[in-house]
Amino acid sequence: MDEQHTGTAQSLEPLVVRVLAPNPSPFTYTGTQTYLVGTTDLAVIDPGPDVPEHIDAILAAIAGRPVTAIVITHTHRDHSPASRPLAALTGAPIVGCAPLVVADTGPRLEAGFDPDYAPARILSHGEAVTGQGWTLRAVHTPGHTSNHLCFALEETRALFTGDHVMGWSTSVVAPPDGDMADYMASLDRLMHRNDRIYYPAHGNPIENPRRLVRGMMGHRKQREGQILRLLREEARPVPAMVARMYAGLDPKLFPAAGRSVLAHLIDLRTRGLVTEDGETWSHVG
Question: Which InterPro entries match (predicted)?
Answer without folding.
Answer: LACTB2_WH, Metallo-B-lactamas, RibonucZ/Hydroxyglut_hydro, Sec-metab_biosynth-thioest, WH-like_DNA-bd_sf
